[in-house]
Amino acid sequence: MIALVSPGQGSQKPGFLTPWLEEEGVKEHLERLSDASGLDIIRYGTEADEATIRNTAIAQPLIVAAGIVTGSLIKQREGFDESQVVYAGHSVGEITAAALAGVLTEEEAMKFIKVRAEGMAAAAAATPSGMSAVLGGKEDEVRAAIEDAGLTPANSNGASQIVAAGSLENLEAFAENPPARTRVIPLQVAGAFHTAFMQDAVAPLAAFAQGITPSEPVAPLLSNFDGQPVASGQAALDSLVAQVTRPVRWDLCMATLSERSIKAVVELAPAGTLVGLAKRGMKGTPGLAVNTADDLTSALEFFAK
Predict the structure, then answer these.
(1) Is 281 in contact with 249 (CB distance < 8 Å)?
(2) pTM of the model
(3) Which domains does the chain have, with CATH numbers?
(4) What is the pLDDT of residues 79-102, one digit of tens each?
(5) What residues act catalytically?
């Protein structure tokens, strides 16, 4: 089995889509996704600066579009075998994974992510909040310290990395008195994602989701909630809505992939983050970051093996 995984917010880099435009059909594909999202994905992925694409309302659709396009290129290549795939995505990448697994159409995924991104951006602007990565320490002690500080362990990324989220005041106090043997690193994000601070973003997303009739996933699709495959397309859609205020358990996703004896982790563009986590959390499992067309051939080699 091969894990085809999609990264979350923060993975985007200025100009990262530029080399993909040389591939046949990519420009047209991105234009269709741009039409669905109401954003010029090509411009943001090739010309915009770092500050611009850090904006939540832009970053999330940009990342999902990139994953859909690069994932589609792999799926269209000779040698791809969907019966050997497990899909998973980190945070916003879970929408990408749901589209590639057939739960959502590409158009539905892009419209869904637009509503999600705009709602989360508005929620973040309403109340100052943020996130900090906590590296090292004992997991139970780190979790207890985060909660004692009035914060939420919003992302559990495995490999001794948990992201604390909450008010800026509480994050600052937490950094001044961190758990033993840890480093606390403030993250450049707009707000406390995957916490109650995002509650205002849920209602519009839930309302939009009611107009979607999801399909059953064509292959196992892991949930950020518990790391287990979703039971149905509707369960996947419900989970995507709940995910806005619910912590991401990527550590449990990696545990499930390990239990399934995954032979390789292939991360879609803009790639690198999840392969890095797998290197530490799934030791011995080969990883590939798909960031250029040359990487597509390498990805297919895993299926050939």
Answers:
(1) no
(2) 0.96
(3) 2-125+195-304 (3.40.366.10), 127-186 (3.30.70.250)
(4) 999 999 999 999 999 999 999 999
(5) 91, 194
